[in-house]
Automatic annotation (TrEMBL):
<keyword id="KW-0963">Cytoplasm</keyword>
<dbReference type="InterPro" id="IPR036410">
    <property type="entry name" value="HSP_DnaJ_Cys-rich_dom_sf"/>
</dbReference>
<feature type="domain" description="J">
    <location>
        <begin position="4"/>
        <end position="69"/>
    </location>
</feature>
<keyword id="KW-0143">Chaperone</keyword>
<keyword id="KW-0862">Zinc</keyword>
<dbReference type="GO" id="GO:0042026">
    <property type="term" value="P:protein refolding"/>
</dbReference>
<dbReference type="GO" id="GO:0006260">
    <property type="term" value="P:DNA replication"/>
</dbReference>
<dbReference type="GO" id="GO:0009408">
    <property type="term" value="P:response to heat"/>
</dbReference>
<dbReference type="GO" id="GO:0051082">
    <property type="term" value="F:unfolded protein binding"/>
</dbReference>
<dbReference type="InterPro" id="IPR008971">
    <property type="entry name" value="HSP40/DnaJ_pept-bd"/>
</dbReference>
<keyword id="KW-0863">Zinc-finger</keyword>
<comment type="subunit">
    <text>Homodimer.</text>
</comment>
<dbReference type="Pfam" id="PF01556">
    <property type="entry name" value="DnaJ_C"/>
</dbReference>
<dbReference type="GO" id="GO:0008270">
    <property type="term" value="F:zinc ion binding"/>
</dbReference>
<feature type="binding site">
    <location>
        <position position="166"/>
    </location>
    <ligand>
        <name>Zn(2+)</name>
    </ligand>
</feature>
<dbReference type="Pfam" id="PF00684">
    <property type="entry name" value="DnaJ_CXXCXGXG"/>
</dbReference>
<dbReference type="InterPro" id="IPR012724">
    <property type="entry name" value="DnaJ"/>
</dbReference>
Length: 377
């Protein structure tokens, strides 16, 4: 069972943003990899603290966590772009929170050179974005997709050497005379982009950064309940970056829903238009209709009215955060024939004034506008 985020940082639920940030910085420095080399337990605590801070420092995520606990982020990807309570990795931690460490570790360079204080840094490759088309059935059950992705990787045989411009430091220092005296500033080296290395040998076919385009099959696990436009992240499957020990970018997976032939989605609910004849409406009976995982049989009561909505509980789509399933709403439409035979016309002519055929809605019958209001409330 996952630890409570407030307990990890050593703060209570009433702590404000400043207190949460201060507590995280204290924990991050205590368990920083530079201070605890080779200590796996310290590394895990460092990651736990970053995960807790990532949630509690965000007002929306904090509110969800306070209400639902860890279940608020059990959807796995959590909508893409962020850790969302998932397992953190060092590259993401230092790229997102490195500035919090200040000058505690080598001017903010931190683990592997990340951080906000300059110095040699590891360069992250560019992210890639792809669209994945899903059916209603895929969304209902969750699915694993194997996608071919073209990504840039370092060419075999490429080598690097220390950047002569910055002597491997990753930064250059400039001194300028100002009205306040001589000012010294440091900025990332333009020759090596702050990595401290430049390419020494470029293999045939590689680009100016020593990278080649490679096609790779990536397996993507998509949880049940995702929706159109949602973005999932597969860490480390984007383009690689030039240089030694640099970090590959991420693969961002954008969800695209394929339209179902008969089912229409509205959040976690599904809608189905059922057309029945005059005879079926008058006599009642049963009908078989499409549901998300096959077909289901529903009962029609005698004298069912057009516009009636039958709600099948739990037959909709699952919640991404595991809060149960939506419903399947069946909209009954009585089909009026456009052409009648001589005998049929004679029958209906004889029934026009029949008391049993006169509209007589009871008070319990809801109007169209009441049904629409109820559906959207």
């Amino acid at each position: 069972m996952k630890k409570d985020y407030y307990e990890i940082l050593g703060v209570d639920k009433s702590a404000d943003a400043a207190a949460i940030k201060k507590a995280y910085r204290k924990k991050a420095i205590e368990f920083h990899p530079d201070k605890n080399p080779g200590d796996k337990e310290a590394e895990e605590k460092f990651k736990e603290a970053a995960e807790a801070y990532e949630v509690l420092s965000d007002a929306d995520k904090k509110a969800k966590y306070d209400q639902y606990g860890h279940a608020a982020f059990d959807g796995g990807f959590g909508g893409g772009g962020g850790f969302g309570g998932g397992h953190m990795n060092m590259d993401d931690i230092f790229s997102q929170f490195g500035d919090i460490f200040g000058g505690a570790f080598g001017g903010g360079g931190g683990f592997g050179g990340f951080g906000g204080g300059g110095g040699q840094r590891r360069v992250k490759g560019a992210n890639l974005r792809i669209k994945v088309k899903l059916t209603i059935e895929d969304i209902a059950n969750g699915v694993e997709k194997k996608i071919k992705v073209k990504r840039k990787v370092q060419a075999q045989g490429v080598t690097y050497k220390t950047c002569p411009t910055c002597n491997g430091s990753g930064q250059v220092t400039k001194i300028a005379n100002t009205v306040f005296g001589r000012m010294q500033t440091a900025s990332p080296c333009g020759a090596c982009h702050g990595s401290g290395q430049i390419m020494d040998h470029k293999p045939a076919g590689a680009d100016a950064d020593g990278l080649i385009l490679n096609e790779e099959t990536v397996s993507i696990k998509i949880p049940a309940g995702v929706s159109e436009g949602m973005q999932l992240k597969v860490s480390g499957k984007g383009n690689e970056a030039p240089g030694k020990n640099n970090v590959p970018g991420d693969l961002l997976v954008v969800i695209e829903e394929l339209e179902h032939e008969t089912l229409k989605r509205e959040g976690e609910n599904l809608h189905y238009d059922l057309y029945i004849s005059f005879a079926e409406a008058a006599l009642g009976g049963s009908k078989e209709i499409d549901a998300v995982n096959g077909r289901v049989r529903i009962k029609l009561e005698e004298g069912i009215q057009s516009g009636k909505i039958l709600r099948l509980k739990g037959k909709g789509l699952p919640s991404l955060n595991s809060y149960g399933n939506g419903d399947l709403l069946v909209h009954v439409n009585v089909w009026t024939p456009k052409k009648l035979t001589k005998e049929q016309r004679a029958f209906f002519e004889s029934m026009k004034e029949d008391e049993n055929f006169q509209p007589a809605p009871s008070k319990s019958e809801k109007s169209f506008f009441e049904k629409v209001k109820e559906m959207f409330s």
